[in-house]
Amino acid sequence: MTANSPFRILQVGLGNRGRMWAEIIAAREDVALSGIVDVDPARLEPIRAQYPDTPLFTDMTAALEASTSDAVLLVTPPDGHLAQARQIFAAGLPLLAEKPLTLDLVEAVEIVQAARQAGLPIAVGLNFRYLAVSRMVRELVRTEELGMPGFGQFTYQRNRDGRAPRLNKYPLTMQHPMMLEQSIHHLDLIRFCYDREVETVSCRTWNPAWSMYAHDSNVSCLLTLEDGLEVNYLGTWTGGWNELQFEWRTDCDQGIIIQRQLFDDLAMARTQDAALRPVALEPCTPFYDDSSALLTAFINHVREGTPLECSGEDHLRTLALCFAAIESSESGKAVSMAEFFTRFGIDSGT
Predict the structure, then answer these.
(1) Which residues pair with 8 in a beta bridge?
(2) Pair (84, 194) in one structural domain
(3) Residue 177 has pLDDT above 80, yes or no
(4) Does pTM top 0.85 for this prediction?
(5) 220: domain range?
(6) What angle do CA 194, 155, 208 make, to 5 degrees?
(7) Across the chain, where does the E strand assignment appear?
(8) Any domain includes 348
């Protein structure tokens, strides 16, 4: 691999997100698919016509042996990630994995430790960090444009039809689908945009009687972050209205920052302002531009050693927060993240 040659990626998985990733990679001249793997031949057949020069495989072991790759992109259900990661590291390849890294925190720690022992990079696809609106919220908070943030309210209310053809079906039967498939993004954004770690979490998860999901599709958390920042979070996949309702408001000592749409519509106001003022954002196509930016950061890290925001180590802190929240819901008690990190052997990052 040279700096000017395309970065060769072996993609494993062709579900809804996998097909999206294939489009993202194919649209770039600096990246090439060295192969695509899916255990279901029916998923590979339409790809054969779309990407005729890309080798296709139904077995990852065969793909690792037959292809020449610079890294692996893992877009498979998380319950198989541990075994797959072991194979990938044994082949000497860096890994970019979709979130969550696993559905078991001990397994996630094992994957990150295996990457460290192999001396290989691992990144996890928390692509919403790379949305233009997320970068701007982080910048406004870090520069204290409106002073010190004191408290926030993050609300995501949606009636998500998990049976829709375009969606993966495993969340319908998994434990804690909302927390581990959706809220994980939101809790990660809270950590990232506020540039603070969570110190304590109190949480309640539950499932409304009408839910199509086998397990809890509602999450409510109170998060205490560093510097005394308090954040209320509410997320649901089983709201009573099909229209998505989203709002993330941050109150600072000199005004507010408010995001009124899931992927854009950022505004701010100083304490004495009579109305909100829109904040200009760079154009961004959700799921595509942010994922491509994540991929660029991963490639730059592999090639040049630049910092990796979405590293496996950092992901463990978000994943641990999710599992600490679940523990809080089950125990009825607040959970200290410092104690939780120590219990699972996770670096707190502070």
Answers:
(1) 32
(2) no
(3) yes
(4) yes
(5) 128-284+318-343
(6) 135
(7) 7-12, 31-37, 56-57, 71-74, 95-97, 122-124, 149-157, 198-206, 218-225, 230-236, 245-252, 255-259, 266-270, 277-278, 335-336
(8) no
